[in-house]
Amino acid sequence: MHTFWQRVNAIFFYALSVLGFLALLCAGTTYFHTAHPDVQLGLDRASLRKIMGAGHEQATLRLSIDADLSTVFNWNVKQLFVFITAEYVTKQNKLNQVVVWDHIVTGKEYARIHSSSIVNKYSLTDQGYGLRGNDITLVLHWNTIPITGLLTTTGFRQSVHTFTLEDQYS
Amino acid sequence: MEMFTDMYYQLKEMRPRTLAHQVLNLCMIVCSALMIWKSLMVLTESESPVVVVLSGSMEPAFHRGDILFLHMGYSPFRAGDIVVFKVADRDIPIVHRVIKVHEKPSGVVDILTKGDNNSVDDRGLYAAGQSWINKEHIIGRARGYLPYIGMVTIIMNDYPLLKYCLVGLMGLFVLTSKE
């Protein structure tokens, strides 16, 4: 009944189920962790120009970020993918959401982001001519990559920065 | 080797009725695996509920050999979502992050994606002349993550012989197992 291979098999699957249970426990207990993030977004300058390409209007932003996300980290967080979106409504679209900046935080010690005069990393381009004179909201989000478990994204809407783009091209 | 000769004699000496029972047992296992997979497809609304990461384009979040659990869901697509999508002329689905969303009043949504580890967006990966992907290109959204386990699949795909040996061995074990 109990040959060598049966024993190997039993040990292997027992180890696998223990590992699975521990992983589940590790991921499940994060439910009791609460984060107290602190975010301040600002805009130093914004300019608008007309382009010919996938869109027709492109804005260049100069941003400032002061965020402390160290409390978002817990025992099951591998990294945070932090990004800022510019959100606006146009006649053409009921929602436009464009990532203008992103940053990977790989540890609690790097979770305090304090930068000013960041130029947008990805172009803020509208599909049509919807940027001129429009209200833009900047929102900071983070996508939590666990060591194992659920992937979640949080948009920090308690502290956003809203501004109006100028009505002319520069 | 002794193990295999044992198995061989065991199979040889089996009465036809017992053999038929064991073969049915094997069929049951194959069928239930298929049923679980198909039910997962229904539950997750995704044609491929579990995918293995094959490239390093999402590093350091996902490495080659990590497993992602997908779920489609009804909530609208938003920037930051990690989606798995297929474009024309490419067989292998791509796992990348949504960086631009333009949602029309009709509900049609134009999406642009990018790999975290890539320096440019995915327009170069899309079909010629395609600037955006839409809901119909998307297989699912990554919701769960399990590291390393997918390496088994990658190794088995790289060495098909190993795959056949393992499957054959498991079949033999089931056929010769005693209740």
Automatic annotation (TrEMBL), chain A:
InterPro entries: SPC3. It comes from Diacronema lutheri. This is Signal peptidase complex subunit 3. GO terms for cellular component: signal peptidase complex. It holds the Pfam family SPC22. GO terms for biological process: protein targeting to ER; signal peptide processing. It comes from the Eukaryota. Belongs to the SPCS3 family.
Automatic annotation (TrEMBL), chain B:
The keyword Metal-binding does not apply. It is found in: Endoplasmic reticulum membrane. Its main location: endoplasmic reticulum. It is a single-pass type II membrane protein. InterPro entries: LexA/Signal_pep-like_sf, Pept_S26A_signal_pept_1_CS, Pept_S26A_signal_pept_1_Ser-AS, Peptidase_S24_S26A/B/C, Peptidase_S26, Peptidase_S26B. It catalyses: Cleavage of hydrophobic, N-terminal signal or leader sequences from secreted and periplasmic proteins. One of its GO terms (biological process) is signal peptide processing. The chain crosses the membrane at residues 20-37, 161-177. GO terms for cellular component: signal peptidase complex. Keywords: Endoplasmic reticulum, Hydrolase, Membrane, Protease, Signal-anchor, Transmembrane, Transmembrane helix. GO terms for molecular function: serine-type endopeptidase activity; signal peptidase activity. PANTHER family: SIGNAL PEPTIDASE COMPLEX CATALYTIC SUBUNIT SEC11. This is Signal peptidase complex catalytic subunit SEC11.
